[in-house]
């Protein structure tokens, strides 16, 4: 019998630095029995290669290796797969997270360009007034970056920068990643224990 599915989310991973955030989020959602539709940009695949030193020659096999927990709940879509269910507002999609989000992708979403499946799905979230969380990873920010973020925030988008907190006394890189991913999960109302909350006993 199929495992109970708690809900459905789309996760987009773009070419901004910090692909680890997206990988961790997908694995946590799968672990908690959520169905995940995953879209990865071409620039993100380059980040997989350069930052994580992963072999991206066989993408399907790499997807299987990275997301092997509840793999049956993961639906991977190419950027040009406009027949994917997430491209339509009639599909029941609880929300979308773009993590990390490049400034180029953010700009396209802010201006409804819909140049690929990731951007189209984000546009669907906006028009259907569903949850959209964007995790930008860029510094410093110029005026256009800030204007695009403000434009989306006024439309109800949650702008959640990849800014890890240090009050939980992180011991390693994974602790820093867990903090940001945990904040995303909090905004999705998904239970987790990725970090120690303020006021909780260490």
From TrEMBL:
It is an enzyme of class 2 (transferase). Dimethylallyl phosphate binds at residues 167, 183. The keyword Hydrolase does not apply. The keyword Membrane does not apply. Residues 9-188 form the Flavoprotein domain. FMN binds at residues 15-17, 41, 102-105, 137. This is Flavin prenyltransferase UbiX. NCBIfam families: PRK06029.1, ubiX_pad. Belongs to the UbiX/PAD1 family. The lineage of its organism: Bacteria, Bacillati, Bacillota, Bacilli, Bacillales. One of its GO terms (molecular function) is carboxy-lyase activity. Flavin prenyltransferase that catalyzes the synthesis of the prenylated FMN cofactor (prenyl-FMN) for 4-hydroxy-3-polyprenylbenzoic acid decarboxylase UbiD. The prenyltransferase is metal-independent and links a dimethylallyl moiety from dimethylallyl monophosphate (DMAP) to the flavin N5 and C6 atoms of FMN. Keywords: Flavoprotein, FMN, Lyase, Prenyltransferase, Transferase. Its EC number is 2.5.1.129. It comes from the Bacteria. It comes from Halalkalibacter hemicellulosilyticusJCM 9152. It catalyses: dimethylallyl phosphate + FMNH2 = prenylated FMNH2 + phosphate. It holds the Pfam family Flavoprotein.
